[in-house]
TrEMBL record:
This is Putative nitrogen regulatory protein P-II. It comes from the Bacteria. GO terms for biological process: regulation of nitrogen utilization. Signal peptide: none annotated.
Length: 100
């Protein structure tokens, strides 16, 4: 197992392509994107039933090094400030497998 950081970014689905472009720009190519997450926060309740596909939230999960997590959090901060959401960084253990 490898000590790593888990970066979770919850933001507007309208910003998902911007987040992806930002991650690519800082050379973080591995992420998981979960569309249509629901919950409640400063902007009120967000449901996953938005018929116009503009008001739902999405969740990015990125497993990376501490240095990469700091770089990503700083690069993504302006996006989250503009579109709303949160960025959370936590410790995790990456279980390596033999598959590429």
């Amino acid at each position: 197992m490898v000590p790593s950081k888990r970066l979770e970014v919850i933001t507007s689905g309208a910003a998902d392509e911007i987040v992806i472009e930002t991650l690519i720009g800082i050379r973080l190519f591995s992420y998981t994107l979960v569309n249509r997450v629901q919950g409640s926060g400063k902007r009120g309740k967000r449901a996953d039933d938005d018929f116009m596909d503009l008001m739902h939230n999405c969740l990015f999960i990125i497993i990376c090094s501490e240095e990469e997590a700091k770089k990503a959090a700083e690069a993504l901060r302006p996006i989250v400030e503009e579109f709303g959401g949160v960025i959370a960084v936590s410790d995790c253990m990456l279980v390596k497998t033999d598959t590429p």
